[in-house]
Design brief:
seven-stranded mixed sheet; single chain; 19% strand; 15 helices; Aldehyde Dehydrogenase, Chain A, domain 2; Aldehyde Dehydrogenase, Chain A, domain 1; six-stranded mixed sheet; binds NADPH dihydro-nicotinamide-adenine-dinucleotide phosphate; alpha/beta
C-alpha cells in the first residue's frame, strides 16, 4: 500500500481500499475489494440468509431490527465521530443524520406488518363468489448502492425498509465511505448473529456494476443521474427492477407574505447543511419582490457567520469528494460569467478541501449554476414578481426531488404545485427524517420511493390471491356456462354499470 496521494481520495491497491479523512488525509480504514466472483458469492450467501430471515416473520424481524436500532442509538456519538472522520461532516450534523436514520429503522420495524401483512380486500358484485386476499412478499435479495454524502441516512433509508419487508441485503457503499458501512454492518451482525442477512461488499464503481449483474432481485441506487442510467442499463440485462434516487436541483419559493428572517434561516440551513452536499438540499431560491431585499440581507448575514472548517464548532466542513470542488468552481464561474453577481463568496471561494459559502444573484436561468446539481455550499437567489412565478421557475428543471415554500397563507397550495416528490412548507428538508412519508423524485431525480409505507412496499411484491367461497350464481370463468347464463351476465352488467350517473 502506497502513501495517501490526496486527502479524501480513496486509494485501491493490491485489492485493498484505503479510506481517508478529506480534511486531514488521516487513514480511516482498509477494506478488501470485492471482484465480480466475490460479489456473486456474497449474493449466494444472502439468498440462504433471506430464506431464514423471511421465515422469521414480521415479529421475529421486528425484535431483531429493534435490537439493532437500540445499538445504533446507544452508540450514536461513536457513529457520528466516524462519519465526521470519513466525510468531514461536522459531528453535530452527523448526529442529526444518524438520529433520523435510527428513527427510520424503528418505524420500518414497527410498521412492516400493518403495511405488508396479509389482509382481506373487498370483492365486487360481479365476482362476489370469490374472497380477495392481498399480501406483500419480500423480493429475496436487495442490492443497495449507496452514496458518500449521507452514509448513514441514505443507505439505511433503503436497507431498513428492505430488511423490515423480509429481504436480505447486500450493500456496496461509496468508496469514499466504506468505514461507516462496515460499522453499521458490524452492529447489525451483533444484533442478528445467526445469518448474514446484511452484508457489505467494498470497492469502486466496478464492484457496484458487478452487484447490478449479480442476480439480486431488486437494486436500490443513490447517486448521480449519469451513473443511475448506467445502473438501470446494467439491470435491464436481467430485468432486475431498480429504484433510482439521483439527486436534484431543489428550489425554495418565498412568498410575499413570508417571514423573511425565518425563510432566510431555512434557506441557509437547507442550502449549506453538509456543505451543500445534499441530494434534497436547496440550491435555488426564488423570492417575491415584496420581501426580496429583506430576505437577501438576512440570508447573507446568516451565511457569512457560518464557521467553515473541521474543528469543533464548525458549521460547514470540507468537500468530501475532492473532484466535486471543480464542479462547484465551474458553476460559480459560469453564474458570474453570465451576468450574475456574488453577494457572498464568489470566484475565490473554492480552496481545497473547503468551499466557502457563496450566494449569487441575477444569474440567468440557463446558467449551469441554476440548471446543474452543484453539490456545494452555494445558493442562487432570484427576484420574482410573486410566488406563482417562483413556482413556475422552480418547476422548469429536469430534476424534481424536493423543495420548500415559505408562505403565511398559501403554503399548502404552493407545495402541491411544485413538481417534485417532497416539499417542506415553512422549513427545509423536513420530510427526509419523517418515517411516515415517502422519499423520492420525478424526472432526472429518479423514481421509486424509500421511507414510509411506500418505502416498505417498494421492497416487496404484491401477492394477490382469490379464493372461491361459494358456488357461482352466474358462472363466467368456465366453459360450462350456458347461453342463458351469458345473457344474464350481460343483463347484470347493464344493471350494475349501465346508468352513467348512478354511483357504484
Ligand atoms: P456516482 O453516481 O458516480 O456514485 C454513486 C454510487 O454508485 C457510488 O457508490 C459509486 O461507487 C457507485 N457507482 C459508480 N459507478 C457505478 C457503476 N457503473 N455501476 C454501479 N455503481 C456505480 O456519484 P459520485 O459519488 O461520483 O458523485 C458525483 C455526483 O453525483 C455528485 O457531484 C452529485 O452531484 C451526485 N450525487 C448525488 C447523490 C444523491 O444523494 N442523490 C449522492 C452522491 C452523488 P464509487 O463511489 O465507489 O465510485
Amino acid at each position: 500500500m502506497t502513501a495517501i496521494r490526496t486527502p479524501g481520495v480513496p486509494v485501491i491497491e493490491d485489492g485493498v481500499l484505503l479510506s481517508t479523512n478529506p480534511a486531514t488525509g488521516e487513514e480511516v480504514g482498509r477494506f478488501p475489494v470485492a471482484d465480480a466472483a466475490e460479489v456473486a458469492a456474497t449474493v449466494t450467501r444472502a439468498r440462504e440468509a433471506a430464506a431464514w430471515w423471511a421465515a422469521l416473520g414480521f415479529a421475529g424481524r421486528r425484535a431483531r431490527l429493534l435490537r439493532w436500532r437500540a445499538s445504533l442509538a446507544n452508540r450514536i456519538e461513536e457513529l457520528a465521530e466516524l462519519v465526521h472522520r470519513e466525510t468531514g461532516k461536522p459531528v453535530a450534523e452527523a448526529i442529526v443524520e444518524s438520529a433520523g436514520a435510527i428513527d427510520h429503522v424503528a418505524w420500518a420495524a414497527r410498521h412492516a406488518r400493518s403495511v405488508l401483512g396479509p389482509r382481506r380486500v373487498g370483492s365486487t358484485l360481479m365476482q362476489i363468489e370469490y374472497a380477495s386476499h392481498l399480501e406483500y412478499q419480500p423480493y429475496g435479495v436487495i442490492g443497495v448502492i449507496g452514496p458518500w454524502n449521507y452514509p448513514v441516512l441514505t443507505p439505511l433509508g433503503s436497507i431498513a425498509y428492505a430488511l423490515a419487508a423480509g429481504n436480505a441485503v447486500v450493500v456496496k457503499p461509496s468508496e469514499y465511505t466504506p468505514a461507516v458501512a462496515a460499522w453499521l454492518g458490524a452492529r447489525f451482525a451483533e444484533a442478528v448473529p445467526e445469518q448474514p442477512v446484511l452484508q457489505t461488499v467494498y470497492g469502486a464503481g466496478d464492484t457496484g456494476a458487478a452487484l447490478c449483474r449479480s442476480g439480486v432481485d431488486k437494486l436500490a441506487f443513490t447517486g448521480s443521474t449519469a451513473t443511475g442510467k448506467k445502473v438501470m442499463a446494467a439491470c435491464a440485462q436481467t430485468l432486475t427492477p431498480v429504484l433510482l434516487e439521483c439527486g436534484g436541483k431543489d428550489a425554495m419559493v418565498v412568498d410575499a407574505d413570508a417571514d423573511p428572517d425565518r425563510a432566510a434561516a431555512a434557506a441557509v440551513w437547507g442550502g449549506l447543511t453538509n456543505a451543500g452536499q445534499t441530494c434534497a438540499g436547496i440550491e435555488r431560491v426564488y423570492v417575491a419582490d415584496a420581501v426580496y431585499d429583506a430576505f437577501l440581507d438576512r440570508l447573507v448575514d446568516r451565511a457569512a457567520r457560518l464557521k467553515v472548517g473541521v474543528e469543533d464548532g464548525s458549521d460547514v466542513g470540507p468537500i468530501t469528494m475532492p473532484a466535486q470542488l471543480d464542479v462547484i468552481r465551474r458553476h460559480i464561474a459560469d453564474g458570474l460569467a453570465q451576468g450574475g453577481r456574488a453577494v457572498l463568496g464568489g470566484a475565490d471561494s473554492v480552496a481545497a478541501p473547503y468551499a466557502y459559502p457563496t450566494i449569487l444573484v441575477d444569474v440567468p436561468e440557463d446558467s449551469a449554476a441554476v440548471t446543474e446539481e452543484t453539490f456545494g455550499p452555494t445558493l442562487t437567489v432570484t427576484r420574482v414578481r410573486d410566488a406563482d412565478e417562483g413556482v413556475r421557475l422552480a418547476n422548469a428543471s429536469r430534476y424534481g426531488l424536493g423543495g420548500a415554500v415559505f408562505s403565511r397563507r398559501r403554503g399548502m397550495a404552493l407545495a402541491r404545485q411544485m413538481r417534485s416528490g417532497m416539499t417542506s412548507v415553512n422549513s427545509a428538508i423536513s420530510f427526509a427524517g419523517m418515517p411516515t412519508l415517502p422519499f423520492g423524485g420525478v424526472g432526472d431525480s429518479g423514481f421509486g420511493r424509500i421511507h414510509g409505507a411506500d418505502g416498505l412496499r417498494e421492497f416487496s411484491r404484491p401477492k394477490a390471491i382469490t379464493r372461491r367461497r361459494m358456488r357461482s350464481l352466474l358462472p363466467s370463468l368456465t366453459f360450462d356456462r350456458t347461453p342463458k347464463q351469458v345473457a344474464m351476465i350481460a343483463r347484470a352488467v347493464k344493471l350494475i354499470h349501465g346508468r352513467p350517473h348512478r354511483r357504484g
